[in-house]
């Protein structure tokens, strides 16, 4: 019981909330609905799909935690990837996971952004400018990496 007293509940709540959200998406049929709406992507080249996934997950991770971004996007991409060969599925899933770590524009995107902005030495406008280019670079880098090396 002594160990439970020192347990960090905020981390537990983040993980639990993400799992509950993903479970709710699955049980409500939202994942199936979204996959049906995204069936047109089967005719798009792999690179453009990777770019789309990376961009979408990066935008989500600007407003949500990395864990929540993955738990939101990964079940949808996993369901969608069942329509593709296994090596392509791995590329799609990997681009999702890597892109969730990208988030340089907003202070709420990651803890380091919040800490840097909290010092008061970095204006929000500078974060927007530098973060936009870092996000863009990261999106293309992740897409190229997943396309060429996985």
Produce the secondary structure layout.
Layout: H1 2-5, H2 9-28, H3 30-37, H4 46-63, H5 66-81, H6 86-99, H7 111-118, H8 124-149
Helix pairs in contact: 2-5, 3-5, 4-5, 4-6, 4-8, 5-6, 6-8
Keywords:
mainly alpha; globular; 150 residues
Intertermini distance: 45 Å
How much helix, percentage-wise, in residues? over 70%
Oligomer: single chain
Q: Please report the number of helical segments.
A: 8
Report the radius of gyration as a whole number of Å: 17 Å
What class would the helix/strand composition place it in?
Answer: mainly alpha
Give the H and E element order: HHHHHHHH
The number of distinct β-strands equals 0
Classify the beta-strand content into a percent band.
Answer: under 5%
- Unreliably modeled segments: none
Biggest beta sheet attributes = none
Globular, elongated, flat, extended or rod-shaped: what is the shape?
A: globular
Count of spatially separate domains:
1
Mean pLDDT: 85
């Amino acid at each position: 019981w002594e160990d439970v007293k020192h347990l960090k509940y905020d981390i537990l709540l983040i993980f639990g909330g993400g799992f509950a959200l993903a479970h709710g998406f699955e049980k409500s049929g939202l994942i199936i609905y979204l996959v049906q709406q995204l069936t047109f992507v089967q005719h798009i080249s792999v690179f453009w799909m990777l770019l789309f996934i990376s961009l979408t997950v990066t935008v989500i991770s600007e407003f949500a935690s990395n864990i929540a971004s993955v738990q939101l996007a990964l079940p949808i991409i996993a369901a969608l990837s069942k329509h593709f060969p296994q090596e392509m599925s791995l590329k799609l899933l990997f681009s999702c996971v890597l892109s969730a770590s990208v988030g340089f524009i907003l202070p709420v995107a990651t803890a380091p952004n919040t800490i840097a902005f909290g010092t008061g030495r970095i204006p929000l406008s500078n974060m927007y400018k530098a973060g936009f280019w870092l996000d863009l670079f990261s999106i293309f880098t992740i897409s190229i990496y997943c396309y060429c090396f996985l």
